[in-house]
Design brief:
The complex is a heterodimer.
Chain A (H helix, E strand, L loop, with lengths): L3 H21 L3 H26 L5 H31 L13
Chain B lengths: L1 H18 L3 H25 L14 H24 L14 H9 L5 H22 L4
């Protein structure tokens, strides 16, 4: 069995890569992909903790299942918004969506 | 290409789940994430292709984001992971694990997680309706 901190390391690395993608990319679809990557990292974290600390109690896996559900719902709605914005503004670059800017 | 690499990393995460004895979640990951969400992302990439080559891929503060991301990673590693979990020995991992049957029971048991389960289904329905309404072409 691999030590727990290796799984946590992988999850933290994925989370930080996703955070970098969210903060530094201009394409809205890529930002959404990075958000999914961050949610994936959180899931890896949850399952690793569940397996190593409380493998009898199903809370960890149930929580991860609900994170899956939330991620799927948010990806669907987010992509619908991106497609709708593209249809009216003809651009997926987030810096171009600046109607509210003062 | 980014979407294809995302699919690759989602497969990798599914492999990690199998290693962690969470086989049902590994299957769910492959089906839901890769089969649905990644395909949706590829559709979105195909539908929003007016700019086949963006002038700038990264925005103006990419160095600051890199700094923040690396700083966060180092902070998590040094502050949380290594001090708290670094000394945990692998021999104390319990060999008997709850199985997929227990997950199914937990999701419908009245004392466990049936309420979040039902709320999650309502959330999925609402998200589906919302996505259809938002992305619909108003003629």
């Amino acid at each position: 069995m691999v030590p727990l901190w290796m799984y946590l390391l992988v999850a933290a690395a994925l989370f930080c890569i996703g955070a970098y993608g969210v903060l530094s990319r201009r394409n809205a679809v890529v930002i959404l992909m990075s958000v999914e990557l961050m949610l994936n990292a959180v899931n890896i974290n949850l399952i690793a903790f569940w397996r190593y600390l409380t493998p009898q109690n199903m809370s960890g896996q149930a929580f991860a299942a609900f994170v899956f559900v939330i991620a799927a719902a948010e990806a669907a709605v987010g992509l619908a918004i991106i497609i709708s914005v593209y249809r009216s503004r003809r651009s997926v670059v987030v810096e171009d969506v600046n109607l509210l800017k003062g | 290409h980014g979407a294809l690499y995302l699919i690759l990393s989602l497969f990798g995460a599914a492999g990690l789940f199998v290693l962690l004895s969470a086989e049902f979640l590994a299957a769910v990951q492959v089906l839901v994430y890769i089969g649905a969400i990644a395909i949706l992302i590829i559709f979105a990439v195909m539908l929003t292709r007016s700019m086949t080559r963006l002038s700038e891929v990264f925005n103006r503060q990419w160095w600051l984001s890199a700094l923040v991301a690396i700083g966060l990673f180092v902070l998590i590693l040094v502050g949380v992971i290594l001090p708290v979990f670094g000394s945990m020995d692998t021999a104390s991992v319990a060999p008997n694990v709850a199985t997929t049957v227990d997950l199914g029971v937990a999701l419908v048991d009245g004392n466990q997680y049936v309420l979040p389960f039902e709320v999650a289904s309502i959330l999925l329905t609402a998200a589906m309706i919302g996505a259809i309404v938002i992305a619909r072409d108003n003629e």
